[in-house]
Amino acid sequence: MELVEKGEMLPLMEEFYTIQGEGHHTGTAAYFIRVGGCDVGCHWCDVKESWNAETHPPTEISGIAENAARYSNTIVVTGGEPLTWNMSPLTHKLKEKGLRIHIETSGAYPLSGIWDWICLSPKKMKLPKEEVYKAANELKVIIYNKHDFQFAEEQAAKVSGNCELYLQPEWSRREKMTPEIVDYVMTNPKWKISLQTHKYLNIP
C-alpha cells in the first residue's frame, strides 16, 4: 500500500501505556507504539507475532499520535523493527504535540525519523547501519551465551564515546547468564546491567 510505503500509515501491532522496563529509562512511564514487520529473525525473540507485517492493520499515523498524546509525554516506538518503515511522518506528528520520542531498534535499516533517544540493540544476523551506530544514545546487547560478550565488545567499538553501554540477559537464560553479566560488568565497568524489570513486575 502506497500510504504504508510513505510512512503515512503503519502496520500497528499494539499500543499501550506502561513502565519502561529496560535500559537507561527503566522505571519511566511511557506510551509504547509497537509496529509490525521484522526480518531480522532472532530465535529468542519474545514478540515473534510482530514479524509478519501483513497480520497487523495499516493504521493512520494521525490517530496513533492522538492516542499517544493522551497518555504520556514519553513515547517509545518499537517493533518488530520500526526502521523497516519510514518513521519521519510519525515522529513529525508526535513532535507537533511536544512529545519526547524514543526508538528501540536493531539498526538493520537506514535511520529515519526525529528521535530524542535511540536505543540500539544489535543482532548478529543483520548488523546495524553505520549511521545508527553513530546516532545511538544507548547500546543494549542481549546476552544469550558467553560468546555474546565478545559480540558486545565488537559492537561497543562502533558506537560513539557518549553512548551508554548495557548488557541484558535473554529472559529464558536469565538465571544462568545474570551472574556472568554481574562478573563481567564488575571487571569491565564501562558496561551496566539491564534487566527486563517489567517481566519481574508482571506488567506489559
TrEMBL record:
Binding positions for S-adenosyl-L-methionine per the UniProt entry:
44-46, 80, 121-123
Tell me the ranges covered by the Radical SAM core domain, including all copies. 25-204
The chemistry this enzyme catalyses reads:
6-carboxy-5,6,7,8-tetrahydropterin + H(+) = 7-carboxy-7-carbaguanine + NH4(+)
Q: Where does substrate bind?
A: 19-21, 34, 78, 204
Q: Which PROSITE patterns match?
A: RADICAL_SAM
SUPFAM superfamilies in UniProt: Radical SAM enzymes (SSF102114)
Kindly list the cofactors needed.
Answer: S-adenosyl-L-methionine; Mg(2+); [4Fe-4S] cluster
Q: How does it assemble?
A: Homodimer.
* Similarity section: Belongs to the radical SAM superfamily. 7-carboxy-7-deazaguanine synthase family.
Q: What is this protein called?
A: 7-carboxy-7-deazaguanine synthase
Please state the gene responsible for encoding this protein: queE
